[in-house]
Design a protein that fits this description.
The complex is a heterodimer. Chain A is of the alpha+beta class. Chain A has helices at about 1-35, 60-75, 90-95, 125-135; strands at about 50-55, 80-85, 105, 115-120. The chains are: A alpha+beta, B mainly alpha.
Chain lengths: ~140, ~160
């Protein structure tokens, strides 16, 4: 029993270590994104969700876009959502380190990237991240 | 070179999730036979050109509506190669466990867990990247190039229309 518990704790440790590595990689992606100049069309003073998609990305249509619409409905004019077609603006996608879609970046009102989400992200998570943005 | 085919990535993700859960369970319970069985099923799946646990998705998760198809125009071969490669590593780990080299055996098992997790949560398939790298080196049998617009190993951006 003790051995099983020890192995369980070791498994939890290893999984946590993997998660920490994932967070570290996200931080590096954000640091790289922060070196970009301002996004075309972005208004200063508003938080921005920069949403990378492609026309035929299925999870973008079925999950990500409805989630963003929900977030926009809650935040209204206080939030700017900018959609980028990664196939048409591949240079921009490359500069932001986007390798898969959907990818969403959340920028604070000064234009600094604060969160990155790889893959489809639920509206609840985006709302929580936005609340963290305004709390500083 | 074969044209791209519709590949259901929901089946691949189910496969990765079952492999991760099964291997973590094998480690926690100190049950090498389970790791060996998963390795054998991965090898068998690669030979039959199917995800080892794709049946779980096809027969249960998809019909019950738990998961929806996520069909992308992609190459099947790199995913099969990745699964076969994982099966070989896992089988080597199982043999190491049988011969008493527990650290090596479980180390190889955790390597497979880490690579499957990278694929599942981040969308990067190391085995596929190795396949495309071998393709660039013109190694016989590795005839498929990455789908247009996608980086080698990363989940393709475009779906089958």
């Amino acid at each position: 029993m003790e051995a099983t518990l020890g192995r369980f704790l070791l498994a939890v440790f290893l999984i946590s270590a993997g998660f920490l590595v994932y967070l570290l990689v996200n931080r590096l992606v954000l640091r790289r994104a922060a070196q970009n100049e301002s996004i075309p069309g972005a208004r200063r003073g508003l938080p921005v969700i920069l949403y990378f998609t492609t026309p035929d990305c299925l999870p973008c249509r079925t999950v990500q876009r409805p989630a963003l619409q929900k977030v926009q409905a809650v935040w209204g004019e206080r939030l700017q959502v900018i959609e980028v077609d990664a196939t048409r603006q591949s240079d921009l996608a490359s500069r932001w380190g986007v390798l898969s879609v959907p990818t969403t970046f959340l920028l604070d009102s000064r234009g600094k990237p604060r969160f990155v989400n790889h893959g489809a992200t639920r509206a609840e998570k985006l709302l929580e991240q936005l609340n963290q943005l305004v709390r500083g | 070179m074969k044209p791209l085919q519709p590949v259901d990535h929901s089946a691949l993700r189910t496969n990765q999730a079952v492999i991760i859960l099964g291997l973590v369970l094998a480690f926690v319970l100190n049950f090498p036979a389970l790791a060996g069985l998963i390795g054998a099923l991965m090898l068998l799946g690669a030979l039959l050109k199917q995800p080892a646990f794709g049946w779980l998705y096809r027969r249960a998760l998809k019909p019950l509506g738990v998961l929806r198809p996520d069909v992308i125009a992609d190459n099947r071969e790199p995913h099969l190669f990745a699964q076969g490669f994982g099966g070989v590593v896992l089988s080597a780990g199982f043999l190491a466990l049988l011969t008493g080299a527990a650290a090596l055996g479980w180390g190889l098992t955790w390597l497979v867990i880490a690579l499957a997790a990278l694929n599942l949560f981040v969308g990067f398939c190391v085995g596929c990247a190795v396949y495309y790298w071998l393709n660039r080196l013109n190694v016989p049998g590795f005839s498929q190039s990455p789908p247009p617009g996608s980086q080698p190993g990363w989940r393709p951006r475009r779906e089958e229309s």
